[in-house]
Amino acid sequence: MGAVLDSILAVKAGLTGGAFEALTPGTGDTFTIRDYVKGSNAYLLEVWGLDDTDVCQFSIASPRMNDGQRGLFLSVPSGAAIGPAEEPQILFPGPVQVPVYNADTLRVQANGTAGDNVLLDFLVYYEDLEGSNVAFTSWLNIVNSIEKIFGIEVQPTCGAADYGVPVTLDSIDDRLEADKRYALLGAITDTPVGVIGITGPDTGRYRVTMPGKVDPTMSGDWFVQLSAKYGLPLIPVIKANNAGSTLIDAVQAAAGDTPTISLILAQLAD
């Protein structure tokens, strides 16, 4: 048993428009909160999203979580107006931990313009999940153990309104040293993508996600910022020997680009 960081993707290609409408979870995802250990807690930590053409409002709600109607009401600017259409925007103020509840089903909706493509992603932190086996740390725990920091390139093909085909961490850039451990600090991408996901043995097979922003100050140390913001150990630690079974995938609202993504890793002393 132990703490887990998990993510939920919500998407819709071609909104009907004119009213709030239901979004669809990404393949393999569910809007139902996992059944965590009794006596522990779970929290929604971070939300980001995009509308590729116009302004849009998102809603995350449930009768147990808030009012069951609009709940967390989050507005996103037009992707066409502010820059690259697929540039995700951080929507959730922090550090705020919104409690979520055992086996509760969230109602995730969007209200936008007909024909727009929308994407929303959020992280859920579980204090204790049965059978979890994950490796997360904080910056203070590793700062004096870092031997070097560098980037490993991957080139997953983005899915359009869903997860794309994953690639392994060592698919094109196999420079991790055997038997070493690497803290994943964040990522830099040459093309904006709504979501970058990492799934593998060291994440407990749960998909850990980050926004694929092109501004390195926002994404290059994403997990370091996240851990400091919430005062929790949220930096994934990946074993080099698991590189071939650690999968990277990416999502865009409408495009299916193949970005070059640099995963920023800190090699840790044994």
Task: Explain what this protein looks like in three dimensions.
This protein is mostly beta strands. It has two domains: 2-129, Jelly Rolls; 136-268, Jelly Rolls (Sandwich). It contains four helices and 20 strands. The chain has helices at 79-82, 139-142, 216-219, 222-230, and strands at residues 2-13, 21-22, 24-25, 42-51, 56-61, 72-76, 89-90, 98-100, 107-111, 117-129, 136-137, 146-154, 159-160, 167-168, 181-189, 193-199, 208-212, 235-239, 247-252, 261-268. The strands form four sheets. Strands 1, 3, 4, 7, 8 and 10 form a six-stranded antiparallel β-sheet that branches. A hairpin with an 8-residue loop joins strand 16 (193-199) and strand 17 (208-212). The longest helix is centred in the C-terminal third of the chain and has 9 residues, at 222-230.
Secondary structure elements and pairings:
Layout lengths: L1 E12 L7 E2 L1 E2 L16 E10 L4 E6 L10 E5 L2 H4 L6 E2 L7 E3 L6 E5 L5 E13 L6 E2 L1 H4 L3 E9 L4 E2 L6 E2 L12 E9 L3 E7 L8 E5 L3 H4 L2 H9 L4 E5 L7 E6 L8 E8 L2
Parallel strand pairs: 13-19
Antiparallel strand pairs: 1-3, 1-10, 2-9, 4-7, 4-8, 4-10, 5-6, 5-9, 11-18, 12-20, 14-19, 15-18, 15-20, 16-17, 16-19
Would you kindly provide a brief summary of this structure?
By secondary structure, this protein is mainly beta. 8% of the residues lie in helices and 43% in strands. It folds into 2 domains: 2-129, Sandwich (Jelly Rolls); 136-268, Jelly Rolls (Sandwich).
